[in-house]
Specification:
heterodimer, A: 531 residues, mainly alpha, two-stranded antiparallel ribbon, 6 strands, 74% helix, B: mainly alpha, 70% helix, globular
Chain lengths: 531, 377
């Protein structure tokens, strides 16, 4: 493959910037609710320590929030800069949730977050609490609309191709908004965010407990994280299951690839716990199978089949053939818009037009496609099986691990046995990176599993890119890598510094003498130089 | 609602959103752009930065929303403008990425090197962004080199340097002057002492510059070969830029003003308000200066909008494929849904934004910074 292929580079850039952005978003989602819970406790009990907790965790939230805002704009921009044909082809539908996200959610979150940080002395207790809840509400609503947009890419309902404008157009906005895939995705994703926030608070609280610092502060924070985390981790798994069930019906190929289900089994299908998927041989070596389980999870029945990759490729082949008919009719309509016969043919087969575009993506004119071209196109509808198989398994294993971890933390916290379970506190601290691994893998499963489509069954990724030169994309890609790496270093440096400083110093509880302040500056300079 | 009306409404919304962006995020950019001039030591810098500290994030959403609205209402414009201006967009992005982290990270360490570095980054980013916006608008008047194939796949033959032409540079200068003026007017309201005194200098200089640049731009536009639709455009036709015809003629951009003389109100407002802002700044009428500055910003943006109407983005290599509000919009259904969404949410946004500004009323002073040393930026 050409190293300067603009499509490949654009995909790489989108993946890197999305994965990077998604380091910050889940933490914002989770922390905003944890802050709201802490501040509610403050308002209800009137105890200062809960106010301090809100403010200290709020500082860390702020560092992360800035990164989330900064890297989010990139995502919006890239649809236009790198995926211009996509923007034209589906902007009529896809643009709507993005714009509503701005109107309904992002404005809310961003306007009130300023008051959250700077309004403590200007608002009454209740007013400030309201502001904090609005920030949490705004960030979660934001996720709702983004996932409605993403859900539509996975399951494009409520839209139809218009040959006069050469693009997809909305037929039912209600279908787009109440898309079951989007709804399941939303709850699954925000719950995952709550888990990220909870593990973050849990790990840092465990760190303070291990060091014997800020004990009252850390115990309370840990209690909040454990209980909120437990509820969220349960919700992630349950709704992940719901997502899986919906995938069975809407993205059969994605499901088959995740499960490395090369051939259709007799119902109920067995579940492959481990194994090494081999795309060439179309089999999973060293597979450890549990009978019935996949069939039960995916179809919630004992007699419905889970289609394997081989049968799905056969289906794709039929759809490519139908798509060619639609494509041919479309060419006629371009020349003779009133041709009734062409219109009828187009209407009959237009749902498979996207499959004909798979041929175009291969550089084949669909009208002149040979049998082997069509077979090749159908085979392209299989995503990367090994990547999906493993990403999914690691994600799920971590999901279950979090349930046990939060449950145990909840018990330790309720019985106040922190001293006895130091090993567990250490474990909590080391678990800090895990929720990020699971959320990033979740993104991989969702988006790699959608390939070769950018819009499932409608538009191949290959055709969605802008007509720009590979050199331009390479330039911006390298720019992002450099720029984002610097930001990552700064972000981690600040986070670490504020965590190590701890709540007393960050909130200025301790009086710092001027001479000491000088030493703080010197210390920072040294730390900066080291970094 | 019929398709033609919806497209007109969306043209208006787009102009209003752009004005909202220039008014709200405009003063943030303006303050940051003159940061190194108006504030010389750390305390003054903190006064200036904290004057916008609690509001820059909300204000920046006008920019994000503008992008989202173009995506939803004029997808072809979104596709062509963003991919055509690839390198310029990347630059804009960088300037908008460093702003949130700059504002939030600057105060997190005490070391002067750290703070000075962020101050410079914030300032340069704001100046570059202000210039780029003007250069982009200037290029709309000249047209940019794009064309479509029969599948409406766009081809663009030009790079970043192709955008750097004399007229767009004048627009870039006007945009920078406009935002400096607006930022200065805001600083006059929100700060006191030396910061406010220096902001007065910026206000006077920038508003007079804006006036001169607008006059010069007005004369220049008369000489430019503008664009005009041939025949009556189909207001309710399909959104397909391959179906129309466009002609070029010198001075065509002034055509709307002779056919609709009431549109002259926009340039008149911009010119009078720019002078009024200077006069009010001279007399130290700070509220009046801010109002005048806001009106000048609105007048300037509406002037650009009225001149270009109904064009969104003309093509100089294939003028007949230029994007107009009639051939680059979303479907009637989508435009209608988005009108409803805007009518519901925009008033709500204005109400709570107003409330936040009321809570934050009053000046940010050096004493206030010292009292809240740890909790402020």
């Amino acid at each position: 493959m050409d190293a300067l292929d603009p499509v490949l580079l654009s995909r790489l850039q989108f993946a890197l910037t999305a994965l990077y952005h998604f380091l910050f978003v889940p933490l914002t989602l989770g922390m905003s609710f944890i802050l709201a819970i802490m501040e509610s406790t403050y308002v209800m009990t009137g105890r200062e320590i809960w106010r301090d907790m809100t403010r200290f965790w709020g500082k860390l939230f702020g560092i992360n929030f800035a990164m989330g805002v900064a890297t989010g704009i990139t995502m919006e921009f890239q649809f236009g800069t790198n995926w211009a044909y996509y923007s034209h082809y589906v902007g009529d539908i896809f643009g709507v949730p993005l714009a509503i996200e701005g109107l309904m959610a992002f404005f809310l979150e961003s306007t009130f977050v300023g008051l959250f940080f700077f309004g403590w002395n200007r608002l009454s207790k209740l007013q400030h609490l309201g502001v904090t809840w609005l920030v949490a509400l705004g960030s979660n609503l934001s996720a709702l609309w983004i996932l409605i947009a993403n859900g539509w890419m996975q399951n494009p309902v409520g839209a139809q191709f218009n040959y006069q404008t050469m693009r997809m157009e909305v037929t039912s906005m209600a279908d787009v908004i109440f898309n079951p895939v989007a709804q399941a995705k939303f709850v699954h994703t925000v719950s995952a965010g709550y888990v990220v926030g909870s593990v973050f608070v849990l790990a840092i609280s465990a760190f303070y407990l291990l060091r014997g610092r800020h004990l009252a502060f850390a115990k309370r924070s840990l209690a909040v994280a454990a209980s909120f985390g437990l509820a969220s981790a349960l919700s992630v798994v349950v709704l992940g299951d719901e997502s899986g069930y919906l995938t069975t019906h809407n993205q059969k190929m994605k499901l088959a690839a995740i499960e490395a289900e090369w051939h259709t089994e007799q119902a109920p299908a067995s579940f492959t716990v481990f194994g090494i998927p081999d795309s060439k041989a179309q089999e999973t070596r060293y597979a450890l199978r549990v009978p019935w389980v996949l069939g039960l999870i995916a179809t919630r029945s004992t007699d419905e089949q889970v289609l394997g990759i081989d049968d799905l490729v056969k289906r794709s082949r039929e759809r490519v053939q139908d798509g060619v008919l639609a494509y041919y009719a479309l060419q006629q309509l371009k020349r003779h818009p009133e041709d009734a016969g062409a219109k009828a043919t187009f209407q009959a087969y237009q749902k498979d037009l996207g499959y004909a575009l798979l041929l175009t993506a291969d550089g084949v004119d669909p009208v002149q496609a040979t049998d082997s071209d069509i077979t090749q196109a159908a085979e392209r509808t299989v995503p990367r099986v090994a990547t999906l198989f493993w990403s999914f398994r690691i994600m799920v294993a971590l999901g279950f691990l979090f349930i046990f971890m939060f449950a145990f933390a909840f018990w330790v916290s309720a019985t106040q046995r922190f001293a006895r379970y130091r090993w567990f506190l250490r474990l909590c601290l080391y678990a800090l990176p895990l929720p990020w691994i699971s959320t990033e893998l979740g993104w991989v499963v969702a988006e790699v599993g959608r390939q070769p489509w950018v819009i499932e069954g409608v538009l191949p990724t290959q055709l969605a890119a802008s007509s720009i030169s590979g050199l331009q994309v390479l330039g911006s890609l390298l720019g992002f890598v450099l720029f984002y790496s610097i930001l990552a270093v700064v972000d981690v440096f600040l986070m670490r510094r504020y965590i190590v400083m701890g709540p007393d110093e960050v909130l200025d509880k301790r009086v710092i003498a001027p001479e000491e302040r000088r030493s703080v500056r010197a210390q920072e300079r040294r730390a900066l130089e080291e970094a | 609602m019929d398709y033609e009306t919806l497209r007109l409404i969306w043209w208006l919304f787009l102009t209003v959103l752009l004005t909202g962006f220039a008014l709200m995020d405009g003063f943030d950019l303006g303050v940051a752009a003159q940061l190194l001039y108006v504030a010389r030591d750390d305390e003054e810098r903190r006064v200036a930065i904290n004057s916008i500290g609690p509001v820059w994030d909300g204000n920046q959403v006008w920019f994000v929303l503008g992008g989202g609205a173009v995506f939803a209402a004029f997808p072809l414009l979104y596709a062509v403008a963003f991919s055509g201006f690839y390198a310029a967009m990347f630059l804009v992005l960088v300037t908008f990425i460093v702003r949130p982290v700059g504002f939030d990270f600057r105060n997190k360490l005490q070391a002067p090197v750290w703070r000075e570095t962020w101050d410079r980054i914030l300032s340069v980013a704001a100046i570059v962004a202000a210039l780029l916006f003007g250069v982009a608008v200037g290029n709309l008047f000249l047209g940019v080199p794009f064309s479509f194939d029969e599948n409406l796949r766009m081809h663009y033959d030009g790079g970043l340097l192709g955008l750097v032409r004399p007229f767009p540079l004048l627009c870039g200068a006007a945009s920078l002057a406009m935002l400096l003026m607006h930022g200065a007017a805001y600083l006059r309201l929100k700060t006191d002492g030396r910061v406010a005194a220096r902001a007065r200098h910026t206000l006077l200089t920038a508003s007079l510059f804006l006036f001169l640049l607008l006059v010069a731009g007005g004369f220049w536009v008369g000489q430019i070969e503008g664009y005009a639709p041939v025949g009556v455009p189909q207001g309710d036709g399909p959104s397909n830029p391959l179906l129309q015809h466009v002609a070029r003629a010198a001075g065509a951009w002034l055509g709307n003003y002779s056919s609709h003389p009431w549109m002259m109100a926009a340039p008149a407002l911009a010119l009078v308000s720019a002078l009024a802002a200077a006069a009010a700044g001279w007399r130290k009428w700070d509220v009046a200066a801010f109002v005048a500055s806001s009106l000048a910003v609105a007048g300037t943006i509406f002037t650009a909008g009225f001149s270009l109407f109904p064009f969104l983005l003309p093509s100089d290599v294939a003028p007949s494929q230029s994007l107009t509000i009639w051939d680059a919009s979303s479907s009637q259904h989508t435009l209608f849904i988005m009108v409803v969404a805007v009518l519901i949410f925009l008033p709500v946004i204005l109400v709570y934004t107003g409330w936040v500004f009321r809570v934050l009323r009053g000046k940010v002073t050096a004493a206030y910074i010292r009292e809240n040393d740890r909790s402020l930026y």
